[in-house]
Amino acid sequence: EAQVTQNPRYLITVTGKKLTVTCSQNMNHEYMSWYRQDPGLGLRQIYYSMNVEVTDKGDVPEGYKVSRKEKRNFPLILESPSPNQTSLYFCASSLSPPGLSSYEQYFGPGTRLTVT
Amino acid sequence: GENVGLHLPTLSVQEGDNSIINCAYSNSASDYFIWYKQESGKGPQFIIDIRSNMDKRQGQRVTVLLNKTVKHLSLQIAATQPGDSAVYFCAESWRGAAGNKLTFGGGTRVLVKP
Known about the structure:
The structure holds two protein chains of two kinds.
Chain A lengths: L3 E4 L2 E4 L5 E7 L5 E8 L3 E10 L2 E4 L7 E2 L9 E3 L8 E8 L11 E2 L3 E5 L1
Parallel strand pairs in A: 2-11
Antiparallel strand pairs in A: 1-3, 3-8, 4-5, 4-9, 5-6, 7-8, 9-10, 9-11
Chain B lengths: L9 E5 L4 E6 L7 E7 L6 E7 L4 E3 L3 E6 L4 E6 L8 E11 L2 E6 L3 E6 L1
Parallel strand pairs in B: 1-10
Antiparallel strand pairs in B: 2-7, 3-4, 3-8, 5-6, 6-7, 8-9, 8-10
């Protein structure tokens, strides 16, 4: 089954404790993104990756890191989480970037992160 | 998602009626638009897209209309069903200096009454 998986689905942590949210897709997609979703603000892009070893900042990258060592995986790293990073996080993948042909973006199920 | 519905405009629709969800986009340079559906506890799901060289596109029970003059996008759902209850987002894409960008609207909650 074609899908995007994220782990963990729920995480409660404390300020400053480094964490990683994993994301994996089995569709051989080149383009992957991380978003956060907050009430009243909608979905905002954190980072994206055009392909292996190619990553770039989205609209709200501060406090986050990503890596793309393999095509299927795109982990999101919070080196020193803070309470303002409490949010619902989604990983997404697509064959190509938005606006180009064959663009259909598949989203993971989400990770609910709470930083106290 | 769980509480992403806070502060969202809500459209209540009788089962079987048609739904129209509206979206005003911001960037006149946007050339590609997408509608997503998000059910409670799940990630957004692609519904339909449209390019700026078109003003209408139809899918299965859904139609997207684009009015570039007033920067307005709408999603029409025919014969709305209980399974259509969800939050619907529009997104616009344009070619930025660093590549193609995608920005999401705030969303509209659709409640289907039996």
